Amino acid sequence: MSQQLGLIGFPLGHSISPVFQQAALDALGIDARYELWETPRERFSEISARLRAPDFLGANVTIPHKQEIRAYLDELDPTARATGAVNTVVRDGDRLIGHNTDVAGFIRAMRVDGRHELVEARVLVLGAGGAARAIVAAALLEGANSVTVAARRPEQARALVGELGARLNLNQQTSLEVTGLSADDEDLAEAAAECDVLVNATPVGMAWGHGGESHLLAPELLPPAALVCDLVYNPPLTPFLRLAADRGASILNGLPMLIYQGAAAFERWTGRPAPVDLMRRAAEEALRG
Ligand code: NAP
Protein backbone atom coordinates (compact mmCIF):
# COMPACT_ATOMS: atom_id res chain seq x y z
CA MET A 1 0.00 0.00 0.00
CA SER A 2 1.38 3.40 -1.01
CA GLN A 3 1.68 5.72 2.00
CA GLN A 4 0.27 9.26 2.20
CA LEU A 5 1.99 12.50 3.12
CA GLY A 6 0.64 16.00 2.69
CA LEU A 7 0.68 19.68 3.49
CA ILE A 8 -2.23 20.89 5.63
CA GLY A 9 -3.07 24.60 5.35
CA PHE A 10 -5.08 27.22 3.52
CA PRO A 11 -4.58 28.60 0.92
CA LEU A 12 -1.90 26.36 -0.61
CA GLY A 13 -2.00 27.17 -4.33
CA HIS A 14 1.61 28.37 -4.52
CA SER A 15 3.33 25.83 -2.28
CA ILE A 16 6.40 24.10 -3.70
CA SER A 17 6.65 21.53 -0.87
CA PRO A 18 5.03 18.73 -2.95
CA VAL A 19 7.62 19.25 -5.69
CA PHE A 20 10.73 18.85 -3.57
CA GLN A 21 9.30 16.29 -1.13
CA GLN A 22 8.06 14.04 -3.97
CA ALA A 23 11.43 14.38 -5.72
CA ALA A 24 13.14 13.16 -2.54
CA LEU A 25 10.69 10.25 -2.03
CA ASP A 26 11.09 9.14 -5.66
CA ALA A 27 14.90 9.44 -5.57
CA LEU A 28 15.04 7.12 -2.54
CA GLY A 29 12.47 4.70 -4.00
CA ILE A 30 9.98 5.26 -1.15
CA ASP A 31 6.44 4.28 -2.11
CA ALA A 32 4.61 7.37 -0.86
CA ARG A 33 2.71 10.34 -2.32
CA TYR A 34 3.04 13.91 -0.98
CA GLU A 35 -0.02 16.04 -1.81
CA LEU A 36 -1.62 19.36 -0.98
CA TRP A 37 -4.38 18.91 1.59
CA GLU A 38 -5.98 22.33 1.35
CA THR A 39 -8.08 22.74 4.48
CA PRO A 40 -10.00 25.92 5.26
CA ARG A 41 -10.65 26.67 8.93
CA GLU A 42 -14.30 25.62 8.74
CA ARG A 43 -13.31 22.13 7.54
CA PHE A 44 -10.36 21.66 9.88
CA SER A 45 -12.08 19.06 12.06
CA GLU A 46 -12.18 16.73 8.99
CA ILE A 47 -8.39 16.48 9.21
CA SER A 48 -8.71 13.93 11.99
CA ALA A 49 -9.85 11.21 9.55
CA ARG A 50 -6.80 11.83 7.33
CA LEU A 51 -4.35 11.73 10.23
CA ARG A 52 -5.77 8.44 11.54
CA ALA A 53 -6.05 6.71 8.12
CA PRO A 54 -4.05 3.43 7.90
CA ASP A 55 -1.89 4.74 5.03
CA PHE A 56 -1.02 8.08 6.74
CA LEU A 57 2.74 8.52 7.13
CA GLY A 58 3.03 12.18 8.06
CA ALA A 59 2.26 15.79 7.22
CA ASN A 60 3.52 19.34 7.16
CA VAL A 61 1.31 22.04 8.63
CA THR A 62 1.20 25.69 7.62
CA ILE A 63 -0.92 28.86 7.95
CA PRO A 64 -3.45 28.94 9.60
CA HIS A 65 -3.30 25.60 11.45
CA LYS A 66 0.10 25.41 13.18
CA GLN A 67 -1.43 25.93 16.61
CA GLU A 68 -4.86 24.32 16.18
CA ILE A 69 -3.34 21.02 15.00
CA ARG A 70 -1.97 20.36 18.50
CA ALA A 71 -5.42 19.31 19.72
CA TYR A 72 -5.42 16.37 17.23
CA LEU A 73 -2.05 14.93 18.30
CA ASP A 74 -0.96 12.53 21.05
CA GLU A 75 2.35 14.15 21.89
CA LEU A 76 4.57 17.16 21.09
CA ASP A 77 8.35 17.09 20.81
CA PRO A 78 10.25 19.61 22.98
CA THR A 79 10.61 22.22 20.19
CA ALA A 80 6.91 22.10 19.29
CA ARG A 81 6.10 22.44 23.01
CA ALA A 82 8.49 25.37 23.39
CA THR A 83 7.25 27.30 20.34
CA GLY A 84 3.59 26.37 20.78
CA ALA A 85 3.47 25.61 17.03
CA VAL A 86 3.62 22.37 14.99
CA ASN A 87 4.80 22.33 11.36
CA THR A 88 5.36 18.56 11.07
CA VAL A 89 3.26 15.57 12.12
CA VAL A 90 4.93 12.16 12.35
CA ARG A 91 3.16 8.84 12.79
CA ASP A 92 4.75 6.49 15.31
CA GLY A 93 2.66 3.31 15.37
CA ASP A 94 -0.77 4.44 16.54
CA ARG A 95 0.53 7.70 17.95
CA LEU A 96 0.78 11.09 16.22
CA ILE A 97 3.71 13.27 17.28
CA GLY A 98 3.93 17.02 16.57
CA HIS A 99 7.34 18.51 15.74
CA ASN A 100 8.57 21.98 14.83
CA THR A 101 11.32 21.74 12.21
CA ASP A 102 11.13 25.48 11.32
CA VAL A 103 13.42 26.20 14.27
CA ALA A 104 16.16 23.80 13.18
CA GLY A 105 15.61 24.86 9.56
CA PHE A 106 16.27 28.50 10.38
CA ILE A 107 19.35 27.74 12.51
CA ARG A 108 20.82 25.59 9.73
CA ALA A 109 20.07 28.22 7.06
CA MET A 110 21.74 30.92 9.17
CA ARG A 111 24.80 28.74 9.75
CA VAL A 112 25.27 27.15 6.32
CA ASP A 113 23.94 29.77 3.90
CA GLY A 114 24.11 32.96 5.97
CA ARG A 115 27.45 32.00 7.59
CA HIS A 116 26.24 33.52 10.81
CA GLU A 117 25.80 32.09 14.31
CA LEU A 118 22.95 33.23 16.53
CA VAL A 119 24.92 32.91 19.75
CA GLU A 120 25.57 36.41 21.17
CA ALA A 121 23.75 37.97 18.17
CA ARG A 122 21.45 40.98 18.47
CA VAL A 123 18.38 39.93 16.53
CA LEU A 124 15.50 42.08 15.23
CA VAL A 125 12.41 40.21 14.00
CA LEU A 126 9.69 41.98 11.98
CA GLY A 127 6.29 40.33 12.51
CA ALA A 128 4.90 38.29 15.39
CA GLY A 129 3.03 35.39 13.73
CA GLY A 130 3.84 31.69 13.46
CA ALA A 131 7.14 32.09 11.62
CA ALA A 132 8.34 34.77 14.05
CA ARG A 133 7.75 32.26 16.85
CA ALA A 134 10.23 29.87 15.23
CA ILE A 135 12.83 32.63 14.74
CA VAL A 136 12.55 33.88 18.31
CA ALA A 137 12.75 30.30 19.63
CA ALA A 138 15.85 29.67 17.50
CA ALA A 139 17.51 32.85 18.81
CA LEU A 140 16.71 31.94 22.44
CA LEU A 141 17.83 28.31 22.07
CA GLU A 142 21.10 29.41 20.46
CA GLY A 143 21.85 32.01 23.15
CA ALA A 144 21.33 35.32 21.36
CA ASN A 145 22.39 38.46 23.18
CA SER A 146 19.09 40.24 22.50
CA VAL A 147 15.87 39.72 20.56
CA THR A 148 13.52 42.55 19.60
CA VAL A 149 10.15 41.70 18.06
CA ALA A 150 8.56 44.51 16.03
CA ALA A 151 4.88 44.18 15.09
CA ARG A 152 2.15 46.47 13.80
CA ARG A 153 0.07 45.10 16.68
CA PRO A 154 2.56 45.32 19.56
CA GLU A 155 0.23 43.28 21.80
CA GLN A 156 0.82 40.31 19.48
CA ALA A 157 4.59 40.77 19.90
CA ARG A 158 4.22 41.10 23.69
CA ALA A 159 2.26 37.84 23.87
CA LEU A 160 4.87 36.02 21.77
CA VAL A 161 7.80 37.34 23.79
CA GLY A 162 6.03 36.63 27.10
CA GLU A 163 5.18 33.06 26.14
CA LEU A 164 8.51 32.05 24.61
CA GLY A 165 10.53 33.95 27.20
CA ALA A 166 8.79 32.04 30.00
CA ARG A 167 9.66 28.71 28.35
CA LEU A 168 13.10 29.35 26.84
CA ASN A 169 14.72 32.29 28.63
CA LEU A 170 14.51 31.06 32.21
CA ASN A 171 17.88 32.44 33.29
CA GLN A 172 17.26 35.64 31.28
CA GLN A 173 20.47 35.27 29.28
CA THR A 174 18.78 37.05 26.34
CA SER A 175 17.30 40.52 26.62
CA LEU A 176 13.78 40.52 25.11
CA GLU A 177 12.12 43.68 23.77
CA VAL A 178 9.02 44.66 21.82
CA THR A 179 8.53 47.64 19.49
CA GLY A 180 5.95 48.91 17.03
CA LEU A 181 6.47 48.50 13.29
CA SER A 182 5.87 52.01 11.99
CA ALA A 183 8.07 54.59 10.26
CA ASP A 184 8.19 56.91 13.29
CA ASP A 185 8.93 54.31 15.99
CA GLU A 186 12.16 55.41 17.68
CA ASP A 187 12.72 52.10 19.51
CA LEU A 188 12.50 50.30 16.17
CA ALA A 189 15.04 52.67 14.61
CA GLU A 190 17.40 52.04 17.53
CA ALA A 191 16.98 48.24 17.36
CA ALA A 192 17.60 48.34 13.57
CA ALA A 193 20.78 50.38 14.01
CA GLU A 194 22.14 47.97 16.63
CA CYS A 195 21.17 44.55 15.27
CA ASP A 196 23.50 41.94 13.73
CA VAL A 197 20.62 39.90 12.29
CA LEU A 198 17.39 41.36 10.87
CA VAL A 199 14.59 38.99 9.84
CA ASN A 200 11.42 39.75 7.89
CA ALA A 201 8.91 37.25 9.30
CA THR A 202 5.89 38.93 7.66
CA PRO A 203 4.47 37.97 4.23
CA VAL A 204 5.23 41.48 2.89
CA GLY A 205 7.10 41.14 -0.41
CA MET A 206 5.61 37.80 -1.47
CA ALA A 207 5.10 37.47 -5.23
CA TRP A 208 1.36 37.05 -4.77
CA GLY A 209 -1.14 39.01 -2.76
CA HIS A 210 1.01 41.10 -0.42
CA GLY A 211 2.05 44.14 -2.45
CA GLY A 212 5.51 43.36 -3.84
CA GLU A 213 6.81 46.89 -3.29
CA SER A 214 5.66 47.67 0.26
CA HIS A 215 8.44 48.68 2.59
CA LEU A 216 8.51 47.45 6.16
CA LEU A 217 11.39 49.70 7.21
CA ALA A 218 12.56 53.02 5.82
CA PRO A 219 15.56 52.17 3.58
CA GLU A 220 17.88 54.33 5.71
CA LEU A 221 17.08 52.11 8.72
CA LEU A 222 18.36 48.95 7.03
CA PRO A 223 21.63 48.09 8.80
CA PRO A 224 24.58 47.91 6.36
CA ALA A 225 26.70 45.62 8.53
CA ALA A 226 23.96 43.10 9.41
CA LEU A 227 22.80 39.83 7.90
CA VAL A 228 19.32 40.63 6.57
CA CYS A 229 17.00 37.63 6.08
CA ASP A 230 13.61 37.44 4.43
CA LEU A 231 11.55 34.31 5.12
CA VAL A 232 9.82 34.97 1.81
CA TYR A 233 11.46 33.01 -1.05
CA ASN A 234 9.29 33.96 -4.04
CA PRO A 235 10.55 36.21 -5.55
CA PRO A 236 14.11 35.15 -4.61
CA LEU A 237 15.21 38.81 -4.36
CA THR A 238 12.40 40.51 -2.46
CA PRO A 239 12.12 44.33 -2.35
CA PHE A 240 13.29 44.14 1.29
CA LEU A 241 16.42 42.17 0.37
CA ARG A 242 17.13 44.36 -2.65
CA LEU A 243 17.10 47.49 -0.46
CA ALA A 244 19.26 45.78 2.17
CA ALA A 245 21.78 44.69 -0.47
CA ASP A 246 21.85 48.25 -1.86
CA ARG A 247 22.80 49.41 1.64
CA GLY A 248 25.68 46.90 1.69
CA ALA A 249 24.14 44.26 3.99
CA SER A 250 24.57 40.50 3.52
CA ILE A 251 21.26 38.95 2.50
CA LEU A 252 19.52 35.57 2.77
CA ASN A 253 16.08 34.63 1.43
CA GLY A 254 13.68 32.02 2.83
CA LEU A 255 14.50 29.16 0.46
CA PRO A 256 17.31 27.54 2.52
CA MET A 257 15.06 27.52 5.62
CA LEU A 258 12.20 26.02 3.59
CA ILE A 259 14.44 23.24 2.27
CA TYR A 260 16.03 22.47 5.66
CA GLN A 261 12.73 22.37 7.56
CA GLY A 262 11.42 20.06 4.83
CA ALA A 263 14.53 17.88 4.98
CA ALA A 264 14.22 17.55 8.76
CA ALA A 265 10.56 16.54 8.35
CA PHE A 266 11.49 14.02 5.62
CA GLU A 267 14.05 12.39 7.92
CA ARG A 268 11.50 12.06 10.72
CA TRP A 269 8.91 10.47 8.40
CA THR A 270 11.21 8.06 6.59
CA GLY A 271 14.17 7.45 8.92
CA ARG A 272 16.43 8.10 5.91
CA PRO A 273 18.90 10.95 5.29
CA ALA A 274 17.22 13.61 3.14
CA PRO A 275 18.78 14.30 -0.30
CA VAL A 276 19.04 18.01 0.49
CA ASP A 277 20.82 19.13 -2.70
CA LEU A 278 18.30 17.32 -4.87
CA MET A 279 15.42 18.88 -2.90
CA ARG A 280 16.89 22.35 -3.37
CA ARG A 281 17.41 21.85 -7.10
CA ALA A 282 13.80 20.64 -7.50
CA ALA A 283 12.54 23.68 -5.54
CA GLU A 284 14.62 26.13 -7.56
CA GLU A 285 13.36 24.61 -10.79
CA ALA A 286 9.75 24.89 -9.61
CA LEU A 287 10.28 28.54 -8.67
CA ARG A 288 11.72 29.30 -12.10
CA GLY A 289 8.44 27.88 -13.47
P1 NAP B 1 1.30 34.65 10.10
O1 NAP B 1 1.22 33.70 11.24
O2 NAP B 1 0.06 35.03 9.36
O3 NAP B 1 2.01 35.99 10.66
C1 NAP B 1 2.32 37.07 9.82
C2 NAP B 1 2.83 38.25 10.65
O4 NAP B 1 3.12 39.32 9.73
C3 NAP B 1 1.81 38.79 11.64
O5 NAP B 1 2.48 39.37 12.74
C4 NAP B 1 1.15 39.89 10.79
O6 NAP B 1 0.53 40.90 11.56
C5 NAP B 1 2.34 40.47 10.09
N1 NAP B 1 1.98 41.20 8.88
C6 NAP B 1 1.24 40.76 7.83
N2 NAP B 1 1.13 41.73 6.89
C7 NAP B 1 1.81 42.82 7.37
C8 NAP B 1 2.05 44.12 6.87
N3 NAP B 1 1.58 44.53 5.67
N4 NAP B 1 2.80 44.97 7.62
C9 NAP B 1 3.28 44.58 8.82
N5 NAP B 1 3.08 43.34 9.36
C10 NAP B 1 2.35 42.47 8.63
O7 NAP B 1 2.29 34.11 8.98
P2 NAP B 1 3.63 33.25 9.23
O8 NAP B 1 3.33 31.81 9.28
O9 NAP B 1 4.33 33.86 10.39
O10 NAP B 1 4.41 33.52 7.87
C11 NAP B 1 5.02 34.76 7.61
C12 NAP B 1 5.84 34.65 6.31
O11 NAP B 1 6.92 33.75 6.51
C13 NAP B 1 5.05 34.10 5.11
O12 NAP B 1 5.47 34.79 3.96
C14 NAP B 1 5.46 32.66 5.04
O13 NAP B 1 5.36 32.12 3.73
C15 NAP B 1 6.92 32.77 5.47
N6 NAP B 1 7.45 31.51 6.03
C16 NAP B 1 8.56 31.01 5.42
C17 NAP B 1 9.13 29.86 5.93
C18 NAP B 1 10.36 29.31 5.28
O14 NAP B 1 10.71 28.17 5.54
N7 NAP B 1 11.04 30.09 4.47
C19 NAP B 1 8.57 29.21 7.04
C20 NAP B 1 7.43 29.77 7.63
C21 NAP B 1 6.88 30.93 7.10
P3 NAP B 1 -1.08 40.87 11.75
O15 NAP B 1 -1.37 39.69 12.61
O16 NAP B 1 -1.35 42.19 12.36
O17 NAP B 1 -1.65 40.71 10.35
Short key terms for the protein model shown above:
alpha/beta; 6-stranded mixed beta sheet; 6-stranded parallel beta sheet; binds NADP nicotinamide-adenine-dinucleotide phosphate
Structure, explained:
With 289 residues, this protein is α/β, with parallel strands linked by helices. 37% of the residues lie in helices and 21% in strands. It is built from 10 helices and 12 strands. The strands form 2 sheets. Strands 2-1-3-5-6-4 form a 6-stranded mixed beta sheet. Helix 4 packs across helix 9 (255-270) and helix 5 (130-142) runs parallel beside helix 6. The protein is globular. The model has no long low-confidence stretch (mean pLDDT 95). The chain binds NADP nicotinamide-adenine-dinucleotide phosphate. NADP nicotinamide-adenine-dinucleotide phosphate (NAP) is lined by residues 63, 102, 105, 127-132, 151-153, 156, 181, 201-204, 206, 214, 231-233, 254, 257-258, 261.
